[in-house]
Amino acid sequence: MLKNRIIPCLDVKNGRVVKGINFVELKDAGDPVEQAKIYSDGGADEICFLDITASNENRDTIIDIVRKTAKECFVPLTVGGGVRTIQNITDLLLAGADKVSINTAAVKNVDFVNEASKKFGSQCIVVAIDAKKVSDKKWEVFTHGGRNQTGINAIEFAKQIETKGAGEILLTSMDKDGTKSGYDIDLLKAITESTNIPVIASGGVGNLDHLVDGVKLGKASAVLAASIFHYGKYSVKEAKEYLESKGIPVRS
Amino acid sequence: MNVTIVDYQSGNISSVINSFEEVAKGKVNLEVTSDVKKIKSSDKIVLPGQGSFKSCVDSLKNINGLVDTLKEFAITKKKPLLGICVGLQMFADVGYEEAETKGLGWISGKVSKIDNQKGKFKLPHIGWNEIEIQKESKIFKDIKNKSHMYFVHSYEFIPEDKSVISATTDYSSKIVCSVEKENLFGTQFHPEKSDKTGLKIIDNFMKL
User: Fold this and answer.
1) Contacts of B191 in chain A (CB under 8 A)
2) Whole-prediction pTM
3) Which of A115, A173, A122, A170 has its CA nearest to residue A146?
C-alpha cells in the first residue's frame, strides 16, 4: 500500500533556514544542510527546500546547498523558488535535486510546465500553487510569495497544469500559511477532487492533528510542514507515530 | 572492480551517481560515461532511466554503438547489469509511453500504463510503497520483505515469464517492481532514493 508522505520544508534565504509568518517577519534558525540531514535521519519521506527570495537574489547559494545536501540525504529532494527557465531546472537537477517546484513561471506561462515535463519527465516537475480564498468556495492563484493576485481560478489552474504534464501539485493556502491553525481543508479537498495527480498539502500546520486532517479530510497524498518540525515542537518520527495511530499508512 | 553508470544524456542521474558514490567510497571504481570502450571493460553496469520510455530508447540509440555494446555486455557475456526505473522498463520488447516503441528485448514483455481504475488511484504512483518479495534475489540480501522503497512512475513492466519477477508492489494491482533473470537485475523503484534500505540494495549489487 502506498504510504502518505511527511515532508519537512526548509525555507532558505541567503543560505540560511528561515520560517516566515505569512511570508513576512523572518527568523534565522539554522544551516539547511545540517537540518536536512537531521530530517532525513529522522525518517522524513522527502525533503523540500524553498528558496524564498530567489527571485531577487543570487541563485548559486541554493545550488551549493542542494549539492551538499544531495551527498548526504538519500531520500527525494524537492527544490522550489525562482525556478523560471529550463536552465534553472537543469542546474538544480545536476546539483542533485530530484524534483523542482515551479510557481510564478507556471502562472505566467502554463506551457513552461509542458516544456519542462517533456524535457525532464513529469516525475520531477511539481507545480506550486499559492491560493487565497476570494469568496465562498472560490480561490485564486497568487504569485510572488502571496503578493500578486492573478485573477486565475485555482481549481481551473490545477486541472490545466495536470494536462500540461505536472507530476504533482504543491498546494499552499496563503490564508493559512504561518497561522498554525491547520490547512485550508476546503481548498485542499476542492483541488484533490478535481485532479488525478498527487497533491501535497501545505500552509498552516500547527499541530499533528492538522497533518491527520490534511490526509483524512483533505485527501492529500503528502503533508508538508515547516515550523512544527523546524522549531522542534515535534519530530518527524513523532508525527509518523501519531498519523499511524490515527490509521494513516506511513513509512516506518 | 569497475562499475559504470551509463550516462546517455537522458534525464537526471545525479541522485544515482551520489548514492553509488556513497556506497562505492574507495572500494569500487565508479565511472559515469557513455564511452562504449569503457563500458566494454567494465565489470558491472548500471542503466538508469528517467523521462518517457520512448525518450530513453531514443537517447540510447543516439549514441553510436551503445545499444550493441550493452547487449554484448548483458546478453552475450552475461555480466551483471542493473536497470533502474525506465532502465528496467527498457529490458522489455515494447513500450507504449508517448508512442509504441521497441525496447531492448532482453526480457520478453511489455511496458504499459498502470490501470488506475478510472482515476481511483492517482498517477504517477509517487511515494513510498512496500515491496513483496516473490523470489530470492541476490540484490535483496538482508532486505526484509515489506521494506519501503521510493517509487515514481506511471507505467509498469509486464514480463511474459513470471518467474523473472523478484518483487511486486501493491498499487491498484500487483505491480512488478523488481526482476532478476540470470545476470540481469532491474528495479522499478529508485534504490538511490530509498534511504538506507535502498543503499543496501546498491551495495548488494556492487558486491555481486
Assistant:
1) none
2) 0.95
3) A173
